[in-house]
Amino acid sequence: MQNSNPPAGSTLVYAGTYTDTKSKSRGIYVYWLKTRNLEVSQNITLVPVGVAAETENPSFFDLDLKRRLLFAVNELEKGAVTAFSIDSTTGMLKLINRVGSGGAGPCHVTLDRSGKFLLVANYNDGSVAVFPVAADGRLSEAGQVVQHTGKSVHPQRQTGPHAHCVTMDPANRFAFVCDLGLDKVFSYRFDAANGKLAPNDPPFAATKPGAGPRHMVFRPDGRFGYVINELNSTVSTYSYDSAAGKLNEAQTVSTLPEYYDGPNTAAEVDIHPTGRFLYVSNRGNNTVILFNVDTEKGTLAYVEEQGTGGNTPRHFGVQPSAEHLVIANQDTNQLLASRIDAGNGRLKPSGIFADCPSPACAKFLPPH
Questions:
Q1: Cβ of 259: how many Cβ atoms within 10 Å?
Q2: pLDDT tens profile 321-352
Q3: Contact at 8 Å (CB) between 127 and 120?
Q4: Which of 167, 249, 294, 330 could form a disulfide with 312 if both were Cys (CB 3.0 to 4.6 A apart)?
């Protein structure tokens, strides 16, 4: 471990990785994002701290900001989920416990909005599991596992179900599961008292055949949801009936700039805390795209692309204060820090990279 004392005016950034032999990664890495003058992009520094915790294939994680907890998947054929407590002084993680994920190849995890339950998407076998979370962060074994079935049109990627993420609606009443293998965004009623999922009516919103829905995010006011479709590189806007838990497609647009016609898979989608700007990432084109969000219609208008300075931006994290964004370039083993313009949402890359082996997820933990 190095640079364990936090610089003044800095915030923690965690990166989950793939720990295969090629990458030589050891688990979850932690950095301090230090800023001296937000008007000058070059005054951003990513200071490596070291390996926060050694764990296998922590390709995605979620943070409990209040309790200072981190919950990571272990993306293995015999999948697992691991809970850690966070030392806010050093950024190091302390193991609480680890349980089976209820399926194969877990790739996404999210806390419900009460923090009492953890929901996990198992990609390889297309299942969703719910885990009780104790006050200290300890995980119990899965209380429920829901198995998807079926297939869609892509001959390699859609021969069976592939649950890729779980997203809670802002009211914590419904859980939505993007299934890349089935071209469906499933809607489940969520029993927040007992941590149980039940199929909603209607049980899903169908995407275009071959789209491959990957990740989803809601606008902060809960009126609209946005789904990034991996296989056809599009992002779909849905108006949201929060009483019924129903999504109605309003628009689907390409995630790619007009000039680009090469191979690509779309990866991440996230929204600015104001709800005014949406960001998506492209693997192949290697960009993060900015869209303006229409206040009333929720629809998207393309603004600009920003190169990521590396290859395969699998994920990016938006700082809760909306001052910065960190991009995880998986195949070039680096993180890139960018400043976000508060007025127009545009990214101002700092040129500041930090080494990180095979990064797959990056998120901020703001100071207490």
A1: 7
A2: 999 999 999 999 999 999 999 999 999 988 88
A3: no
A4: 330
Q: What are phi and psi of 315, to 5 degrees?
A: -155, 160
Residues 129 and 120 sit within 8 Å (Cβ to Cβ):
yes
Report whether 269 contacts 278 (CB < 8 A).
Answer: yes
pLDDT at 37: 56
Work out the average pLDDT over 282-291.
98
SS3 of residue 43 by DSSP: helix
Give mean pLDDT, residues 64-83: 98
**Contacts (Cβ under 8 Å, ≥6 apart) of 65:** 320, 365, 366
Q: What is the DSSP string of 209-254?
A: TT--EEEEEE-TTSSEEEEEETTTTEEEEEEEETTTTEEEEEEEEE
Task: Give percent helix, percent strand, percent coil of the chain, each to the nearest 5.
Answer: 0, 55, 45
Instruction: Name the token pair of 299.
Output: 């629809």
Model pTM above 0.85: yes
pLDDT digit string, tens, across residues 151-185: 999 999 999 999 999 999 999 999 999 999 999 99
Strand order in the sheet with 27-35: 44-54, 27-35, 10-17, 359-365
Q: Label residue 5 exposed, middle or buried (CB < 10 Å: 0-12, 13-18, 19+).
A: exposed
Residue 121, both tokens: 């998407």
- CA 31 to the chain's CA centroid: 18
Distance CA 152, CA 165 (A): 18
The residues near 162 (Cβ < 8 Å, ≥ 6 apart) are 123, 124, 126, 179, 180, 181, 182
